[in-house]
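Example record

Each entry pairs one chain with its bound ligand, protoporphyrin IX containing FE.
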Amino acid sequence: MKGVIFTEFIEMMEVKYGFTVTNQVIESAGLKSEGIYTSVGTYPMLEMTSLVSSLAAITNESENDLLRAFGNHLFGRFQVLHPSFIERYSNSLDLLAGIEGHIHQEVRKLYDNTELPYFDYQIEDDIPVIYYRSTRNLHFFALGLMEGCFLHFGENYSIELSPAGKDQWKFKLTENAQR
Ligand code: HEM
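C-alpha cells for the complex follow.
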C-alpha cells in the first residue's frame, strides 16, 4: 500500500488523538517500518491492518468506524494534495463514476507499485450503484471516501452498503430530498 495512505493516517491520528496515543498505537502495532513512512514508498498492507486494529483497541472504537472516518478525512486531504483530480468534476456522482477511468488512472501514473481496487459505476432502476472489488476488502474506507465526496459537493445521499460476492461490495446511492 502506498506511503501516502500511511502518512495521512498517522497525521489524522496525531490531530484527532494527539501524539501520546499515536506513539502508543505505533508501538503496540509492532511495525517493521517503526511507523516511519514516505508518501512515495510502498509498505505491506499488514502494517495498515495493524495500525487500525491497535488504534481500535486503544480508543475502543470499531475498526470499521475508524476506516470510515479515515476515508472521510482523506477525501478532504486529496482536495489539498491532488486538487486537479477533483476540480474537473461539478458533482459527486460524476466524480465517483470517474474513479476507475480517470482518478485512479492518474494515481497509477503518479505513484509506482500501486494496487488499486476496481470500481464499476452503474445505474440500476434509475438509482446509481457502485460495485467495488478488492482482495483488501476496504469497503468501509471506500464508504468514508464517498461520504467525504458528498460533503465536498454539499450533496445529501444515503449510502446502502451490501456484500455482492467474493471480495465485492455494492454501494447503493439514494439522494435525500432537500429540506
Ligand atoms: C483525488 C481522489 C483520489 C486519489 C488521489 C486517490 C488515491 C489513492 C491511492 C494513492 C491509493 C493507494 C493505492 C495503493 O496503495 O497502491 C488509493 C486506494 C484506494 N482508493 Fe483512491 N483515490 C482517490 C479517490 C477515491 C475515491 C473517491 C474513492 C471512493 C470510493 C477511492 C477508493 C479507494 C480505495 C477503497 C482504495 C484502497 C485500495 C483497495 O481497496 O484495494 N479513492 N486511492
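The longest strand covers residues 168-175.
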